């Protein structure tokens, strides 16, 4: 029995809240487990995985450098992050913006990176990595601006797969991206129930009624599976009124633990 069969049989799919999209596979076996995986939803901050890869592709191509100082938008974005509290900071190196974008999910940092990289480059990156439902056509937290922000579990899993297998970036930039993802501070979803010694390189996202997490799971030093879980249309009181906790957060944690167990053959 392989990873996909073990994950399907794990029971982690029972009583899932809301509307769920899942895409997961073992990076060696490559048989996917898909559940609503191509349904387009608002990706919240999980879209920052694509922005990270697109920015590092610009570094690869010589359009930017990790030391390039990038100006911050005058209008600081709402939502998560620290830069709205630092009005005296007018620019930062690209490497620091990428870290803020992922590690503390800073929306102002993300918008600065988008301005530096360009929406066309992000769209080209998505297309080259096989993303079919993904659109990032405006700055984050700018709901009045025209353009879509959408993706699906399968697309985000494809981005992570291309990253970890070396299809998206050269080795040194792949290592840089994985190091940034490994420092993610929100650990209440895919990594929450993993045993000691497990590794998780993830990027969660949340809005009212929305809980997501996408990541790579494996041993401490080697990703072995990609798992993307996007949950929306959550109507429970906590999910509808706050952007933390709730039953979907716990459900994603169970899926992460089940995926880790599915990497090893069943005992006996």
From TrEMBL:
<dbReference type="InterPro" id="IPR012338">
    <property type="entry name" value="Beta-lactam/transpept-like"/>
</dbReference>
<protein>
    <submittedName>
        <fullName>Serine hydrolase</fullName>
    </submittedName>
</protein>
<dbReference type="Pfam" id="PF13354">
    <property type="entry name" value="Beta-lactamase2"/>
</dbReference>
<keyword id="KW-0378">Hydrolase</keyword>
<dbReference type="GO" id="GO:0016787">
    <property type="term" value="F:hydrolase activity"/>
</dbReference>
<dbReference type="InterPro" id="IPR000871">
    <property type="entry name" value="Beta-lactam_class-A"/>
</dbReference>
<feature type="domain" description="Beta-lactamase class A catalytic">
    <location>
        <begin position="21"/>
        <end position="231"/>
    </location>
</feature>
<dbReference type="InterPro" id="IPR000667">
    <property type="entry name" value="Peptidase_S13"/>
</dbReference>
<dbReference type="InterPro" id="IPR045155">
    <property type="entry name" value="Beta-lactam_cat"/>
</dbReference>
């Amino acid at each position: 029995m392989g990873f996909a069969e073990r994950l399907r049989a794990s029971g982690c799919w029972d009583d899932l809240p809301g509307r769920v999209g899942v895409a997961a596979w073992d990076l060696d076996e490559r048989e996917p487990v898909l559940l609503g995986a191509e349904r387009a939803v608002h990706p919240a901050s999980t879209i920052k995985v694509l922005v990270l890869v697109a920015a590092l592709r610009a570094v690869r191509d010589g359009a930017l450098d990790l030391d390039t100082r990038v100006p911050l938008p005058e209008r600081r974005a709402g939502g998560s992050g620290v830069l709205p509290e630092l009005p005296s900071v007018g620019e930062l190196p690209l490497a620091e913006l990428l870290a803020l974008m992922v590690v503390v999910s800073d929306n102002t940092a993300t918008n600065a990176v988008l301005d530096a990289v360009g929406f066309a480059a992000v769209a080209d990156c998505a297309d080259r990595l096989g993303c079919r439902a993904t659109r990032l056509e405006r700055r984050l937290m700018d709901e009045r601006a025209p353009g879509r922000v959408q993706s699906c579990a399968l697309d985000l899993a494809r981005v992570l797969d291309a990253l970890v297998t070396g299809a998206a970036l050269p080795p040194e930039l792949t290592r840089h991206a994985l190091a940034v993802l490994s420092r993610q501070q929100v650990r209440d979803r895919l990594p929450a129930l993993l045993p000691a010694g497990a590794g998780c390189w993830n990027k969660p996202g949340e809005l009212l009624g929305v809980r997501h997490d996408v990541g790579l799971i494996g041993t401490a030093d080697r990703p072995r599976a990609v798992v993307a879980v996007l949950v929306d249309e959550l109507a429970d009181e906590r999910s509808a009124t706050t952007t933390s906790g709730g039953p979907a957060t716990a459900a994603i944690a169970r899926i992460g633990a089940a995926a880790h167990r599915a990497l090893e053959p069943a005992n006996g």
